[in-house]
Amino acid sequence: MKVTLKIKRFNPEKDEKPWWAEYTVEAEPTDRLLDALNAIKWYQDGTLSFRRSCMHGVCGSDAMLINGSNALACKVLLKNLGENIKVEPMRGFRVARDLMVDLEPFFDKYKQVKPYFITHSVTPEKERQQSPAERERFDDTTKCILCGACTTSCPSFWANPEYIGPAAIVNAHRFVFDSRDEGREERLEILNHRDGVWRCRTIFNCVEACPRGINVTRAIGEVKKALMFRKL
Amino acid sequence: MTIKPLEYLTYRGKAGMWAWILHRLTGVGVLMFLLAHILDTAAIGWGPAAYNRMIELYRMPVFRVGEVALAGAVLFHALNGVRIIILDFWPETMTAEKKLFAGVVTLFAVVYLPMAIYMLRFLAH
Q: What's the CATH number of domain A2-101, 3.30.565.10, 3.10.450.50, 3.40.630.40, 3.10.20.30?
């Protein structure tokens, strides 16, 4: 099949504002969007820039705005996109070039929630034990690959770039509900500030966008509830 | 990188995003009416005659149609507000978020359509 890709391009060193480039590629319906982008970069226009690494939906490098909603280019099949495809960089972050956005602020927020084990008690001789049920409690949020699709699909984040964002909250949730972790209070305090979980308006764009199928809004809701009831 | 308000609508969100947009619009709409309503009731300060003259305005067809829109806005905002309360207090219901929204739309249609027809029947005369 022949597909036409309209790609929003921007080179801050040359262009005053973003512009649309159009490419036509011959591809199989079962090819992924990333295959089409590679075909353009390798055979038509080497100046097209985008991130990709593992190309199998695990590294989280190639999240972008595809036909109006966020997804990983390596997970979307061309047959599900139609013959005319619109590709843009994710919204809300500075465009570094073409489909690449500057993710530094994204990772700064990730670091804010202290995404690592915090323990104050004496280290046990063997491992810290956990029941299957306790492990299940935060299973959903262990799946995050930090691609940024959720955060950049969130209207609350578009309106206020200071909002800590769904991705950081998901990664906080992963520790807040882990029975072995002892940093619960510190993390909840961080998420309780004015740009924390309360900016979430339960819009569910993050859930639709997540390539890992994480119920992001539910995770945020559980953190909100933990905050509401922690002093009762 | 700030996103302009109209650009919000170019993101293809699903039920949750539409629920949010409608909730905002109906919320602002009801607020506008309440501001106007403060002004019209304030006419009582100039005596019953002034108040009656002011309230007479609402009998004009344009206001009566507006009243139907207002009732719709209040109804949707209330029903979706209940949906949000359910989601907030029982996050486990978030896996059924689309069904909850479908419930809001269904209830809205069942209550609003007969009500709108009843309120607009004066147009037939």
A: 3.10.20.30
- Answer whether residue A59 shows pLDDT above 70: yes
Question: Are A122 and A137 in contact, with CB atoms under 8 Å apart?
Answer: no
> Between A and B, how many residue pairs show a Cβ–Cβ distance under 8 A?
81
Pull the structure tokens for residue A13: 């060193």
| Token pair belonging to A102 | 């500057």
ipTM, 2 dp = 0.90
Nearest to A217 by CA among A199, A232, A190, A231: A199
Helix H or strand E encompassing B17: helix B15-42
pLDDT in tens, B20-67: 999 999 999 999 999 999 999 999 999 999 999 999 988 999 999 999
CB contact under 8 A, B89 and A225: yes
Which residues of chain B does A218 touch, with a Cβ-Cβ cutoff of 8 Å? 91-92, 94-95
Yes or no, beta carbons of A92 and B1 under 8 Å apart: yes
